[in-house]
Automatic annotation (TrEMBL), chains A, B:
<dbReference type="InterPro" id="IPR029028">
    <property type="entry name" value="Alpha/beta_knot_MTases"/>
</dbReference>
<dbReference type="GO" id="GO:0008168">
    <property type="term" value="F:methyltransferase activity"/>
</dbReference>
<keyword id="KW-0698">rRNA processing</keyword>
<comment type="similarity">
    <text>Belongs to the RNA methyltransferase RsmE family.</text>
</comment>
<keyword id="KW-0949">S-adenosyl-L-methionine</keyword>
<dbReference type="GO" id="GO:0032259">
    <property type="term" value="P:methylation"/>
</dbReference>
<dbReference type="Pfam" id="PF04452">
    <property type="entry name" value="Methyltrans_RNA"/>
</dbReference>
<comment type="function">
    <text>Specifically methylates the N3 position of the uracil ring of uridine 1498 (m3U1498) in 16S rRNA. Acts on the fully assembled 30S ribosomal subunit.</text>
</comment>
<dbReference type="InterPro" id="IPR029026">
    <property type="entry name" value="tRNA_m1G_MTases_N"/>
</dbReference>
<dbReference type="InterPro" id="IPR046886">
    <property type="entry name" value="RsmE_MTase_dom"/>
</dbReference>
<keyword id="KW-0489">Methyltransferase</keyword>
<protein>
    <recommendedName>
        <fullName>Ribosomal RNA small subunit methyltransferase E</fullName>
        <ecNumber>2.1.1.193</ecNumber>
    </recommendedName>
</protein>
<feature type="domain" description="Ribosomal RNA small subunit methyltransferase E methyltransferase">
    <location>
        <begin position="74"/>
        <end position="236"/>
    </location>
</feature>
<dbReference type="InterPro" id="IPR006700">
    <property type="entry name" value="RsmE"/>
</dbReference>
<keyword id="KW-0808">Transferase</keyword>
<keyword id="KW-0963">Cytoplasm</keyword>
Length: 237, 237
């Protein structure tokens, strides 16, 4: 937690906030070893970053006086990530990684090799997803919460929603065996498609290429989804 | 497990192997849903990659007939990774990531912000480290086991062993706030230093820069060690 992210319920008035959740209180006590009088980095959810003085800290609450919110959060990556739904435990970590790396739009997609049961996982509940995204923002000192959408049927997504997403973005399909190496240091608005463990099936690859994606690869190594997501984002942007 | 990595005890003779460990048997049954007659990708530890026919599979063992070992494993990254010892759970995942990404030399270093207790963790036992590295190799279809060294004292390492490591490598120190952005797509032999959660302390940064490292950064976002390691390797090489 490199930033205390203040959500609307945390605010007492325009310059004071109160934290009452066990997770953040414990982190302030045990990791920061914070004391009243300490200056801490804070940010307003979807707003600016600044600093606050810790006024009180006990087992039930922490109170903060906000001194300034005078900096913009770091710039987002110019990417909309289209990710085949990973298995639940990997989804949790992947949400933290992508939030920390600056992804602001994420669509979780059903594909042939996504197990149907994954869509019933408690990890997909809005409050769970939000919690993982907040952890990523707190880690990276960002404040802008990513938007997450679900597409539970491949073909309707491809036919009805994909054309609009690709209308003003460069489509990149990351898939082993594609002809082009992953480009480096681009700044185009990009729609980046990444398959599940085991990859997109041939039919899906063909349809995505027909729809306007360029196929790219990261070399002959096969990476886990969470490793591939970080590696692709770091190399592309 | 995209590759069955055959270790010396697995070999029955020059063209047959037997697996008896529960992890790989379960993976063959439950993930691959393998049947006798199936062709599987195999590799000899520290050797070549090829294919084998599954002859038998039951709860106690799998037997394989090696048909060919005719391909070299993917090329390694030209990097020696110098990593402040992460906390045990993150170490486990980081070992898998770096093995999958092609790191072949890893030195785990004590620094001021590494908790001393981490050095007593069971995760540092050679067999545990080896197991995580093997998982990374199996994932990436690689066969060459990385070498892992421990440096439990910063100053003796810096004074006695670092000069030789830097003699024929480009030293890159990844640290927030360094003046230069992380370079992209280099192929120099590199010694890449990455600090612990919370970073290197100022004294350590100064000493590493004096020793010949170039300071580089990944932008204003603060990443977890496991995310930073993958992002740096993907951007650099």
């Amino acid at each position: 937690m490199n930033l205390i992210l203040l959500e609307p319920p945390d605010w007492l008035d325009a310059s004071h906030a109160r934290l009452t959740d066990a997770r953040r209180l414990q982190h302030l006590r045990d990791v920061h070893r914070a004391q009243p009088g300490d200056r801490l980095t804070v940010g307003a959810l979807d707003g600016r970053i600044g600093r606050a003085e810790l006024l009180t800290l006990d087992d039930a609450e922490a109170t903060l006086r906000i001194e300034a919110l005078d900096r913009e959060p770091p710039p987002p990556l110019p990417v909309h990530l289209l990710l085949a739904l990973p298995r639940p435990r990997m989804l949790a970590r992947t949400l933290e990684h992508v939030a920390a790396l600056g992804v602001k739009r994420l669509t979780l997609l059903h594909t042939a090799r996504v197990e149907k049961s994954y869509w019933q996982s408690p990890e997909l509940r809005p409050e769970k997803i939000r919690q993982h995204l907040l952890l990523g923002l707190e880690q990276a000192r960002d404040t802008r919460l990513p938007e997450v959408a679900f597409e539970t049927r491949f073909k309707p997504f491809l036919e009805d929603r994909l054309p609009a997403l690709l209308a003003n973005r460069r489509g990149l399909l990351a898939h082993p065996g594609m002809p082009a190496a992953c480009p480096r240091g681009i700044d185009d608005p990009t729609l980046l498609a990444i398959g599940p463990e085991g990859g997109f099936v041939d039919y899906e690859v063909e349809r995505l290429l027909e729809s306007g994606f360029e196929g790219i690869h990261l070399g002959e190594r096969i990476l886990r989804v969470e490793t591939a997501v970080t590696a692709l984002l770091a190399r592309l942007f």
